[in-house]
Amino acid sequence: MQHIDLICVGKLNASYFAQGVAEYQKRLGAYCEFRIIELPEAPVSDKNASPAAIEKALEKEGKAILASVRKGASIAALCVEGKLVSSEELAALIARQAVEGAGDMAFVIGSSHGLAPAVKQAAAFRISLGRITLPHQLARLVLTEQLYRAFSINNHGRYHK
What we know:
Elements: E1 3-9, H1 15-28, E2 33-39, H2 51-68, E3 74-84, H3 87-99, E4 105-109, H4 117-122, E5 125-128, H5 136-154
Parallel strand pairs: 1-2, 1-4, 3-4, 3-5
């Protein structure tokens, strides 16, 4: 069975996001071994932090992210410069990995400051959820739903219309 990890920096604070993610996490269990790994956001001194302070925090988060990736898994980094993909394209990507690659994948959502360059460089794929900016908690819900949709597409389920 394919292993899919969602590595996120930060926690879900709103119960309605947590409930939505939990529902799709439960549904994904029929198709893959799905787990969510929450990592702490590196503290930045204040809201007007210097670029150097942000870079240092991202570097710390990046090391924790890369240490959390399952051995042999392909990394898919969610970032603004990533490729816009449709639900069908995401499904095809996951299916290709299952056939051609090791199969295991780690989708990564960074902190409010983004992702460390080291994570983006290590990523086999860079994906964007759209041209709009989403709060990280909403991005997690959207990505979890899209992963479920992708597996539903690949398994000819009725969820995707």
